[in-house]
Amino acid sequence: MEPLLVLDAVDKHFGELHVLKSISTTVAPGEVVVVIGPSGSGKSTLCRAINRLETIDAGRILIDGVPLPEEGRALAKLRADVGMVFQSFNLFAHKTVLENVTLGPIRVRGKSAAEAKKRGMELLDRVGVANQADKMPAQLSGGQQQRVAIARSLAMEPKLMLFDEPTSALDPEMINEVLDVMVGLAKDGVTMIVVTHEMGFARKAADRVLFMADGALVEEATPENFFTKPSSDRAKDFLSKILTH
Ligand SMILES: Nc1ncnc2c1ncn2[C@@H]1O[C@H](COP(=O)(O)OP(=O)(O)O)[C@@H](O)[C@H]1O
Ligand SMILES: [Mg+2]
């Protein structure tokens, strides 16, 4: 199968800092890839490069065989094709939950209000917050807000969903309600790249784990192999730290 995403020797500096060091990998349609690694290893920069919130210095990023556009309408289209859910729930504070989910499809995808609303309610139902549709984001818990953020991304019918530590700002009791939604998406065949330290999610949903350290892609393995027999010392050291607390 043709890969949905190709990263080919992707390189990026922030001044002196070499933040992405010749990263190469591919993601197939329907694949779920978990990216794991110490803070500062370049995971967020990699996600941001994939929807071109950051430029790269060298290498290529292709989606469906097409290099990322530089600017203009093609870039807007790319942003719509690549959904992104961040750590902080960046919902529009002055719009209702349902409006948050329907705005993009109406403005960017050219859907009718009725169509967007119907689809929006289906997606809110899918993430378990349909009964909150008319509330304002601030009236929802963090876990509910993050589920709305996921529904909002899905409403754009993206080819690829990026999640950058989507549960790390949540109170512990809300983490699973968000992870459960993500496991459901994975089962439904949504192509996902997920930066997370949630081992349970990786074991349940990931096809592959990418381990990054110091800007390099150090290891790629199945979750089973990565967690039970990591091959690099960097990964062993990292896992010993996160698994013992
Ligand atoms: N806009 C920026 N300007 C300069 N340095 C940055 C910028 N964004 C991130 N960095 C640095 O790049 C490195 C990788 O950051 P990041 O991709 O956020 O790592 P991670 O998500 O793995 O914690 C870090 O050292 C960080 O301080
Ligand atoms: Mg990060």
From TrEMBL:
The ABC transporter domain, residue ranges: 5-239
Sorted UniProt keywords: Amino-acid transport, ATP-binding, Cell membrane, Membrane, Nucleotide-binding, Transport
Classification via PROSITE patterns: ABC_TRANSPORTER_1, ABC_TRANSPORTER_2
Membrane topology: Peripheral membrane protein
Source domain of life: Bacteria
GO molecular function: ATP binding; ATP hydrolysis activity; ATPase-coupled polar amino acid-transporter activity
Protein name per the record: ABC-type polar-amino-acid transporter
Species per Swiss-Prot/TrEMBL record: Pseudolysinimonas yzui
Lineage: Bacteria, Bacillati, Actinomycetota, Actinomycetes, Micrococcales
